[in-house]
Amino acid sequence: MEATAIQTRPLGRGGITVSALGFGCWAIGGEWQDGQGNPLGWGAVDDDESVAAVHRALDLGITFFDTADVYGAGHSERVLGRALRGRRDEVVIATKWGNVFDESTKTVTGSDTSPAFARQALTASLRRLGTDRVDLFQLHLSDAPLAQAAELRDACEEFVREGLIRAYAWSTDDPERAALFADGPHCTAVQHACNVLLDAPAMLALCEERDLASVNRSPLAMGLLTEKYRTGGRGGAGDIRAVPPAWLQWFGEGGVPVPEWSARVEAVREILTSGGRTLAQGALSWLWARSPRTVPIPGFRSVAQAEENAGALAYGPLEEGQLTEIAELLAA
User: Fold this and answer.
1) How many domains does the chain contain in total?
2) Number of Cα atoms under 13 Å in the Cβ half of residue 324
3) The domain spanning residue 232 has which CATH number?
4) Residue 157 included in any domain
5) With 70 as the cut, is the pLDDT of residue 1 above it?
6) Element (H, E) at 263
7) Least confident of 84-98, 108-122, 170-184, 245-259
8) Mean pLDDT value of segment 135-150
9) Is residue 170 domain-resident?
């Protein structure tokens, strides 16, 4: 199979162009926790390595970085801001708001759906990122009530008018909620879960209908679609995968992959690794083939991970026939 490189994609209808692959900055936030002390991060990190990885990503053509104020209780934004110092105009920065947290204890303490808090959170994110605007400001409360979300959409329109943000989106897996935000003129995307193991046809259809970008979180199923777990890797201390919450369906206690999901990965491994791709690169190529609107945002914590993920751009989307074959294998 001859590879077809892919470089950029539009971020929906707002005139913003991004690299076809974004980098998710959850993992570089380091350790943080919920109110019961359960880990919400991916374990300890080396900030210098994180900065080096961002710099390597920039060198390899990555221009889209997605973070959230709550990742590492503010730490991810600070590290990303440090890494992008002097190069801000080369990139598109997405962040999220809605969670309330204590930076000193790195603990999530609640949530807030008020427009006043949205402004407070945006101001704090701008400060941590060291920038005067956020390119994509995303509501991070996936199940926020529709009435309150409509007020937040209107608040985001005001932030656009003030030049504090360029566009906004909702991070949600509910098409009805995504559609409500899409009624706003400057809503350009929806961030939602999507990968080879967890397709999202309804959300992709909405993105097509409303001219939105599909920003794909968990494109590698939180590491299951990489070689980490085939070689005996496990989530360690401070890693959310080691004490998985109910929504994290791919892992059991201790960070051990659920056998059913591991079997599904093995069923499609040969196709995903065709043409010289790694497993992770194949999973990203599946997303590009799935829709011309997808922009996957795999996480990273090292220069090596940045290089592997960015390397998928040289291969581009899978072929249509491969997409069909994967669907048939997973339906069996």
Assistant:
1) 1
2) 3
3) 3.20.20.100
4) yes
5) no
6) helix 259-272
7) 245-259
8) 98
9) yes
Q: Which range is least confidently modeled, 127-141, 160-174, 183-197, 237-251?
A: 237-251
Strands 187-193 and 165-171: parallel
Rounded CA-CA distance 167/163 in Å is 10
Convert the pLDDT of each residue in 262-298 to its tens digit. 999 999 999 999 999 999 999 999 999 999 999 999 9
Which 3 state secondary structure label does DSSP give 14? coil
Q: With contact defined as beta carbons under 8 Å apart, do 294 and 194 qualify?
A: yes
Joined tokens for residue 267: 């069923």
34 in a domain, yes or no?
A: yes
Structural domain including 58 reads 8-331
Whole-angstrom distance, CA of residue 209 vs CA of residue 140: 23
Q: Among all chains, which residue has been given the structure tokens 């206690």?
A: 253
pTM, two decimal places: 0.97
Residue 1, in any domain of the structure:
no
Distance CA 295, CA 191 (A): 9
